[in-house]
Each structure stands twice: as structure tokens, then as C-alpha cells.
Amino acid sequence: MTKEPEDQVTPRSIHTKNIVKSYDENMVVNDVSLDVKNGEFLVILGPSGCGKTTLLRMIAGLEKQTYGDVFFDDINVGGIPPQKRNIGFLFQQYTLFEHMSVKENIEFGLKLKGVKKAECEKKITELLDIMGLSEMLNRNPKNLSGGQKQRIALARALAMNPSVLLLDEPFGALDASTRTKMRQDVKDIQRKLGLTTILVTHDQEEAFELGDRVAVMNQGKIEHIGTPQEIYDNPHTAFVAQFIGTVNVLNGVFEKGKIKLGYLLLDTPKLNFKFKEGDSLKLLVRPEDVEVEKALAKMKRKEEITTGKILNLLFLGPFVKLRISLGRGITVRVLKPKEEITKKKFKIGDDVFVNISKFKVFPESVDASIPTPVSNILKV
Amino acid sequence: MVTDLKKPLVRYETKEFLSRYLLIGIVSFFFLLLILMPLGSMFYYSTSEGLYAFFQAVTSPAALFALKFSVLLALATTVCNVFIGTLGAYVLVRYDFPGKNILNAVVDLPIAVPTAVTGFTLLLLYGPIGIFGKYLSQHGITILNAFPGILLAHVFVTFPFVIRSVSGVLEGVERNYEEVAKTLGASRFQIFKHITLPSIKGGIISGLILTFARSLGEFGATMMISGNIALKTQTAPLFIYKRIQELDYTGASAMAILLALTSFIILYSLKVITKRKEKSS
Questions:
Q1: Model pTM?
Q2: CB contact under 8 A, B174 and A93
Q3: Is the ipTM of this complex over 0.90?
Q4: CATH topology of domain A248-363
Q5: Cα(A268)–Cα(B9) distance, rounded to whole angstroms?
Q6: pLDDT in tens, A171-198
Q7: How far is the C-alpha of A136 from the C-alpha of A144, rounded, in Å?
Q8: How far apart are CA A157 and CA A105, in angstroms?
Q9: Which of B183, B186, B190 lies nearest to residue A60, judging by beta carbons?
């Protein structure tokens, strides 16, 4: 790699090409090709054991891939050890050296690099200032809180002027309020420095908050990569649809070019899969995409509208969660703004008209038993 | 239950009190029987002929040599095993390789093998008929009945101490620390020096103390390989044995007292130093 001028961050783009990691027969990362643009913040999101951390470790050079290549810009970093990749890496467990003070931790890499003392001091003061921890200079990391520890670890990584920042669930061990604050700070710092950053997480809220783009990973493969909105609105796979936010998984049948769901007959949207007459399929419906109206005699009943009964009604602050039975054993979860519910005066036991305005269709064979990720506002 | 609560709690407290002091009593009894009484009798015998006899016994050239030789030997053994043991522990914990389990089992062998057997095997290997012994004597190097042979025996006997205590600590040291140092540009050696070594320091020190103490008291293997030559290869324990054989109980117990005192002072000061260092860090 070319030598960087001191004290200047030169972000690099990251590319992985058909990268594979297997242990014996077990494919942990399966043929992943990824392009992270210069200065972009990419979040790799997936359940535990999906291979996301292994992928990040291969990019860092902490793990050797079984097959494939990693490029920083157009340089293949395959033969370059992590020491020389010019990366900043953050672990979940803070990993501050406890036999050193905060100052010694930050200057660790700088000293090894042979940076002059005055320059070291300047850099440390500057970084601690950014982190808002100037008074912690001579403290032992043992006496710091989790959030403070992770800030120091970040300062230590940034002190080296890395070209890329790799974060392995860095907020996982923090309490909720610290996590929120720290996320915002990381995003601000990343923007300010224009650092190419990859963050690995299982927390969807975190992914959406931080990522310019999000890559959803499952069983060693990236199933969908795109902006948070693209992923939410137009998931490529059933897994992505279910892993992001909450979704109703309903069983339907393909009939005369339409989808039959209980008493409902739905027009097919643009289908990603081909179905034959009578094929069973899975309908994935977001709770907010279900329209609910009070069942009034004067309302004309159409085929796309079915009747249902409100089984449950739960206030969640700005939103209300409803559980509605559509008959034939089908129940859907619905999420509506509080105002709409108040206006329409819904009660438990009310008969309602239900219309499913937006949905995704996947073949029956797609596994729906996916562990639900950690709860957040989008979940009901 | 309500009536139970109304009962005075004296009986329960008395029981608690009695069982506590019973246990303390049992432990004190064994401590007295197993450690204090032998030490006391040693002290009694060493001074039974007066302090002058005691002083003479411990300042005789043979006694002074034996003590010096023992301490020097224990120090050399400790240095060897701290180096080999730390390296061994690092390799056994950090790397996977074929035959690792066998090697792991072999490490503990010196604890199970009688020290006399250890001495005997070294005798066979480095003696006049042994493979190494033959070759080395041709080049004018003597192992048997000399410092190198005794050192070999001591290194063998005390081998598991450092390697085991360091392995235990090293297993608890997360690799993330070493990895993060890597991403900060540290070479393998720098990582070991700045990150790994400070984390396993406690393990090294406790292994070192055990090694030193065990080496200072080593008898069986030393007996087999040293030839027990006064003023040449006689260690303090061998000196004691020789004095007993010659029915010189005062001399034997005087040296025993001195040996016990020396090891106590060294071990105690090591503990104080490490505690001070820990506090300051």
C-alpha cells in the first residue's frame, strides 16, 4: 500500500470478491461479493451465526478467507497483514488494555509507529476532546463506564488515521441510553471524517439509523443490499422481509392469476416468483399495510375486502397494535397511528372491513421460522 | 411457621458458633501437627547443644556452600522454566497442532514420576553409557555429578509449575486484545511484550514461586545425579541427609532451619514485591 501522509485520513473503498470462509464442511461465509463506496457507511445486519462477524474479520485480515479476494480501492490486500492494512477495528468488548492508562491506550499504536511525543500529545488531546473525555486522560480504563470505554477504544482506533473503520457490534454491551448517544456520535464522527465504515450488528434499529446502505446477511450469504427504505419496502427474500420490522406471514393459494387468502381474493403484484394454478404460497404483509374500516351496512363489499373481528387492541404510545381475525383461522397483526384508532372508535370485538393494500409473495417452501430480532418501535 | 419465628434464635446461633469454631479447631490441629510441630522440633534440635554449636554448624564451609549452591540452582532452574514454561504455555494455548493433546499430557508427567526415577533416567541418558553422555564426554563436557546435570534434573522436576499456572491465566486472556493490538500496527513480538506478557504476569509469578520452592527442596533426583560431593555438588537437602547419616542431628536441623528460613524470606519478599507492583499499576 502507498504511504499516507501523516495526520490525514484517506478513506478507501472496500470490495470483496466471491469471498468464502469454511470450517471443515461448514460454510460460514458463502460467496460474498460486496462493494463499499469511498466514505460510505455500510451496515451488515443479520442474526447471530449468519457469518457477519467472520466477513468483517476477513476484511480486517484477522481471519484468512478460504477463497476469494478483498480489495481496498484496487489493491488486493490478501497478502497484507492486519498491521499494515491501516484499519481501525472496534470490538464489542471494548478491549482497552487495562494495564495502561487512557493516555497510554491511545498512544499505543502511535508510539509503535514512531510518532513524535509532541505530535502524540496533540492527537490525544484532540481525540479526547472530540469524545468529551478530556478529564479521563490519566485514568485507568477499569474505572470507566462501558460507554466511556468504547469511546476511548474508538479514539485509539482513530488515532492511527485509518483508511477504513470496521466495527463489530460496538454498542452491543452498552445500556440503551448510552447506545443511542454513542450511535449518534459515531455517525457524526464518520460523516465528519468521511471514513469508509462497515458496522456489523443484529439490531435492525441500529442498522437503519447508521447505514447509508444495509446488507442483510443470512446463512453466510447477503440476501439484500440497499438503502434502509429499499430493504423495508421491497425485500428481496422472505427472510429479509421477516428480519426487518414485523410482518404477518399468511398462507395463500394461487388461483386464476389471483391470490386467495381465506375469503379474500387479492390482485397479484409484480411477482418475483412463478406460480402455477393451485400453488400454495406465503403472503408477507406489514402490519401498517392493512387497512381497517368499521363494518357499516352501507359500505359495498368487494372481493379485495373481507370482514374481520378485532380480537385485541394494545396502545403503544404513538401507535396502536390490533389483532384481527379474518376467519378460517387467519389472524393478522395491524399497526395504526393512535389518532386513526381514536377517530374510528375501534373497540375489542368490533366487526371491521379489512383490506390488504400492499404485500409480498414468496413460494411456500421459504422457511418462515426465522428468529425475530431484538424488539424496537417497528415491532408489534 | 409463625410459631417457629417466635422461638428465640439462640439455639441456631449457638450451632453456627460451635460449628465455626469446631472447623477452625480441626484446621489448627492439623496445622500444628503437620507443620508447626516438625518445625518446632527442628528448632529444638538445632539449638539443643547451644547457639554456638548452631552457629558453627551453619557457618562451616560445607554448609555455606550447600546453601549457596541450592539457592543458585533454584534461581537457575526458575530462570530456565520461566522461559521454557511461558513459551510452552503460549504454544499450547494459542496454537492448534497435531499431537497437542499428547504434549499436554506429557507436561504433567514430572508430577507423577518419582523423582528417583527422573534422576535414574538422566543418569542413563547422560551417564558414561548414555547416548548423550558418551558424545558429550568425548567433547570434554560433563553433565553427571556436575551443575548442568543437577540443573537438568531440577528443570525436569519443576517443569509443570510455570507452564500450568501460565496456561490457566492465558486461557482467560481474550484474543481480542491481541487482535486489536494487531490492528494498531503491533508486531507479534510487540503484542507479546506489551499485551500478552502483562496479562499473564500473575501466572508467571505464581509459577515462579512454586518452581523456586520446589527446586530448593528437591532431593530424590538430585541424589541420583549429583553424586552428593561436599563443596562440589552437594545441595542443602543433600547436606542435611549426609549430616543425619553421620548422626549429626544438630548440623542437620541447623541447616534445615536455615533452608526453611531462606525459602520463607525469598517467597515472602517475592509476594511483597508483586503486591506492591500490582498496587502501583
A1: 0.81
A2: yes
A3: no
A4: OB fold (Dihydrolipoamide Acetyltransferase, E2P) (2.40.50)
A5: 78
A6: 988 998 999 999 999 999 999 999 999 9
A7: 9
A8: 10
A9: B183
